[in-house]
Design brief:
Blueprint (H helix, E strand, L loop, with lengths): L5 H25 L12 H7 L3 E2 L9 E4 L7 E4 L2 E5 L6 E9 L2 E8 L5 E10 L7 E9 L11 E4 L12 E5 L5 E5 L15 E8 L2 E6 L2 E8 L9 E7 L5 E11 L2
Parallel strand pairs: 10-14
Antiparallel strand pairs: 1-16, 2-5, 3-4, 4-16, 5-15, 6-12, 6-16, 7-8, 7-15, 8-9, 10-11, 12-13, 13-14
Length: 258
């Protein structure tokens, strides 16, 4: 039986290494493989290309303020995450300090434990003092909290009825104040929400129509055609609900429609 000399084995090894290096160079020249993380722009770049602006810098609370003001200590930033922990029972908000009309909002949220949070839109200070704010509320909570909270639209008002659009429903409020509720086609299911992990929220406010998405699926929809006390502009507010409750937010992007 013929045995390869050490010189032959060394030559073949060197040839294999040279071939591998040549293939690597060709691959690098072609750029990253389609579908790999390197082939896609960063999330920030992607949203900017789509007309969004980042409204949370990941380092400070610049551009945001606490309502009530004495709950400011409930909010802090750590490693790019906006963390809220309720210091007492009762509602508190961190609001983006610009009034808006029509817009699209994107963010990610996480509830490490049980709790209730959400995003208030077209929010204004409650003149009755019943709550810190009045507005339309895209409601979030832990898995199992119920379809009237997680993925639902709540109405927070001082001087008008407050029907809600439960998860999976489209609530329409007519000019005379009467309402009807319809089922959404192919709505968000609870199984599509990641428990105690990051989930993506999309809120679209356009005219009298409000859509609330979680992880790309429509969770609920609200159309408010009421003639009285309808809110056409206001603030965006992130909510913390009760003492000891925690909610985390990150990657907050805004697109102004008008």
């Amino acid at each position: 039986m013929h045995r390869q000399s050490s010189k032959d084995r060394s030559s073949k090894l060197l040839l294999a290494i040279a071939s591998w290096m040549a293939l690597t160079a060709v691959s690098a020249a072609k750029g990253p493989r389609e579908g790999s993380p390197e082939s896609h722009p960063s999330q920030s770049t992607y949203f900017q290309r789509k007309g969004f602006e980042s409204i949370f810098d990941g380092k400070t609370l610049a551009g945001w303020r606490s309502i009530p003001a004495d709950r400011a200590s409930d909010w802090k930033v750590e490693q790019g995450v906006l963390i809220s922990v309720g210091s007492k029972t009762g509602l508190a908000y961190l609001v983006f300090d610009q009034e808006l009309t029509d817009f699209e909002l994107r963010l990610s949220y996480r509830l490490p434990g049980n709790g209730n949070t959400g995003v208030e839109i077209r929010a204004q200070v409650d003149p009755s003092g019943k709550r810190p704010l009045v507005g339309y509320h895209a409601d979030l909570g832990h898995i199992g909290i119920g379809s009237n909270v997680l993925g639902a639209w709540d109405l927070h008002f001082a001087e008008r009825p407050e029907p809600g659009a439960h998860r999976g429903k489209h609530l329409t409020i007519h000019p005379d104040g009467t309402t009807d509720v319809r089922d959404l086609p192919s709505p968000l299911q609870v199984s599509q929400i990641r428990d105690r992990d990051w989930n993506d929220v999309r809120v679209v406010a356009k005219g009298t129509d409000f859509k609330f998405y979680i992880n790309g699926r429509l969770a609920s929809r609200l159309t408010d055609n009421a003639k009285q006390a309808r809110l056409d502009r206001g603030l965006i507010g992130l909510q913390i609900h009760d003492h000891g409750a925690r909610a985390d937010f990150k990657d907050i992007f805004l697109k102004r429609i008008k």
